[in-house]
DNA sequence: ATCTCGATTGGCT
DNA sequence: GCCAATCGAGATG
């Protein structure tokens, strides 16, 4: 996807990322998954957002251009986010779950589980399955040939929404989006 | 379905 | 040094 795709309203990007394919290649091989669950995070009037507080090394990319990876660890798991909106307008989408498409053997090896459902059905699981860590922080998804997101029309689906998961103080608005009846959503 | 405990990092004092 | 944090796995009922 190109810059214009990412530099839009964060909830719109979160919804439109559903069904798209994320690709990551490193020395170990290629893994690929369809995005089935996302969450949108805004700026200062979104208490759940890291951008509601001061700029730090961890969250500063939220103010940068859209289409960059933003990665941090929470409870011993790496979280993969994609920045949204233009420069100086903070926003990011958390990728919460994938449906495995390619490299399932490699995902199994990295995860230590055989059950396909256990490979990428959560934000911490999917980074482990793909082999994504802090090393991949700040990658420009519109330019990289190792990590990128591509369009796909694999399936038709309805979009469900709910409140965001695991946040201590959510907004009234529901900002978690998922593919209805998909078996790989996190809950 | 619900709980409970372990895990790692970055930011702050 | 301390501690909170966008979680995961295993156990339990």
Give the helices and strands, then pairings.
Elements: H1 3-6, H2 10-17, E1 21-26, E2 29-41, E3 69-74, E4 77-83, E5 92-102, H3 104-111, H4 123-130, E6 147-150, E7 159-162, E8 176-179
The protein binds a DNA duplex (13 and 13 nucleotides) through strand 3, strand 4 and helix 4.
Describe the structure.
- By secondary structure, the protein is of the alpha+beta class.
- Helices cover 15% and strands 29% of the residues.
- The protein has four helices and eight strands, in the order ααβββββααβββ.
- It has helices spanning 3-6, 10-17, 104-111, 123-130, and strands at 21-26, 29-41, 69-74, 77-83, 92-102, 147-150, 159-162, 176-179.
- Strands 1, 2, 3, 4, 5, 6, 7 and 8 form an eight-stranded antiparallel sheet that branches.
- A hairpin with a 2-residue loop joins β1 and β2.
- The two termini are 27 Å apart.
- The mean pLDDT is 96.
- The structure holds a DNA duplex (13 and 13 nucleotides).
Brief description of this entry?
This protein is α+β, with helices and mostly antiparallel strands. Helices cover 15% and strands 29% of the residues.
């Amino acid at each position: 996807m190109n810059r214009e795709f990412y530099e839009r309203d964060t909830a719109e990007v979160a919804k439109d990322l559903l069904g798209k394919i994320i690709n990551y290649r490193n020395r170990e091989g290629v893994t690929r998954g369809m995005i089935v669950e996302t969450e949108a995070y805004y700026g200062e009037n979104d208490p759940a957002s890291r951008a509601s507080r001061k700029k730090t090394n961890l969250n500063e990319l939220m103010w940068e251009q859209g289409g960059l990876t933003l990665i941090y660890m929470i409870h011993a798991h790496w979280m993969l986010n994609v920045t949204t909106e233009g420069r100086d307008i903070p926003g990011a989408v958390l990728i919460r779950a994938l449906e495995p498409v390619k490299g399932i053997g490699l995902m199994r090896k990295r995860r230590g589980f055989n059950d396909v459902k256990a490979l990428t059905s959560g934000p911490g699981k999917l980074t482990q399955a793909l082999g994504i860590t802090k090393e991949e922080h700040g990658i420009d998804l519109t330019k990289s040939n190792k990590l990128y997101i591509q369009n796909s029309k694999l399936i038709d689906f309805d979009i469900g929404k709910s409140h965001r998961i695991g946040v201590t103080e959510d907004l009234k608005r529901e900002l978690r989006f998922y593919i209805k009846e998909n078996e790989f959503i996190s809950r």
